[in-house]
Amino acid sequence: MFLVIIVGMIGAFLILDKEETPKKEKKVEVKKSETKTSKLSLVMVGDALLHSSLYKDGYKNGVYDFSSQLEYIKPIVQNYDLAFYNQESILGGTELGLSDYPTFNSPQEFGNSMIDAGFNLVSLANNHTLDRGEKAVLNSCEYWKDKDVLTAGSYCSNEEANEIKIKEKNGIKYTLLAYTYGTNGIKVPEGKEYLVNIYSDEKVKNDIEKVRDKVDLLMVSMHWGTEYKTEPTEEQKREANYLSSLGVDIIIGTHPHIIEPITYINDTLVIYSLGNFISAQSTNNDYNTMVELMTSVDVIKEEKDGKTTIKLDNLNNELLFNYYQKGSRWTNFKVIPFSQMNSSYNNDYQRLYNKYSEVVRLYNKDIKINPLP
């Protein structure tokens, strides 16, 4: 009897002890998904069209040097990772003999000044690419090939034209494609279509399919539209929609020589025309070929859970003025941001700022433009 009581007490104790022993909880570590963000900055300007008065102005002490023409632009451009322009007049060099409108050929030293200013994306496809024939294109290729610059739209061989050119900056892979509507009636030599990219829906589709899944940022330079018109043509709009459907991130428009609007088509930034960058074009009373556009944007790459997204942020614009002095010949060329303008360059600059700001914002009133001083 006594033994039974002892055994019962021990059992009760064990049960009590078991009940009062707290259960250990398993700690499950939840890994938070991290977002990796990369960014690069891009600035874009329009056509470099070197008339004779402009390259003569750059000839000093026996050499060509265009740095004084770019002195207001260089400090701005050098703040950006990427900087685009269209080399409208081919850099065939002095050995071919320099020439003006209608068949341009320009000193290669101009390219040196643009590179020194910070430009590293260059379109070579435009209606003047074949102005001085195949030899000028070959000279141009030879000039650009050893520069730390991504060029597009004009090549010296099929192999070079078919090469997928990809660069990387700040962890973002990018490329530039470039096309022109035509070459002023100059026939592209048969079998040498690589000399200049003539636009077609089929060609651009094939080119984009080769590279779209290999880059984060795809830019396409389009030499298109109607000269001296501030609104894009229906064909420009159609092509812009088509390029957007193919996944182009930024369409950079040139050729009209004057500013056209900026807008978005889906996620594609469309700059219909940046206008000129530097030239000596004659102008109407509204200085339409002398008021130009410089557009900048940040490219943001986000990587999370194995997915990569690209977005464009901080879109901004600066109007530029292509200043020169008229006399027995035109001299003292300079590209001046409107944020640094004053009446010594143009008495009517405030009205011009208002007029061309409205052109830029025609399709999107929220587009930002740097204010006047």
> Total number of β-strand segments?
16
Q: At the fourth CATH level, what is the homologous superfamily?
A: Metallo-dependent phosphatases
Number of structural units classed as domains: 1
CATH topology: Purple Acid Phosphatase, chain A, domain 2
Most strands sheet? 8 strands, mixed
Tell me what portion of residues adopts beta-strand conformation.
Answer: 25-35%
**Helical percent range?**
10-25%
What is the helix tally?
9
Report the top-level CATH class: Alpha Beta
Describe this structure in words.
It is a single chain. The chain has 373 residues and is an alpha/beta fold. It has a single domain (36-360), classed as Purple Acid Phosphatase, chain A, domain 2 (4-Layer Sandwich), CATH 3.60.21. Helices cover 24% and strands 28% of the residues. Strands 1, 4, 5, 6, 13, 14, 15 and 16 form an eight-stranded mixed beta sheet that branches. A six-stranded mixed beta sheet has the order 7-8-9-10-12-11. A two-stranded antiparallel sheet has the order 2-3. Helix 8 (234-245) links the parallel strand 9 and strand 10 (250-254). The longest helix is centred in the first third of the chain and has 19 residues, at 2-20. The protein is globular and about 70 Å long. Residues 1-21 have low confidence and may be disordered.
Layout of secondary structure:
Layout: H1 2-20, E1 36-48, H2 52-57, E2 59-60, E3 63-64, H3 74-77, E4 82-87, H4 109-117, E5 121-123, H5 133-144, E6 150-152, H6 158-162, E7 167-169, E8 172-180, H7 201-211, E9 217-223, H8 234-245, E10 250-254, E11 262-265, E12 268-271, E13 276-278, E14 291-304, E15 307-325, E16 331-337, H9 349-360
Parallel strand pairs: 1-4, 1-13, 4-5, 5-6, 8-9, 9-10, 10-12
Antiparallel strand pairs: 1-14, 2-3, 7-8, 11-12, 14-15, 15-16
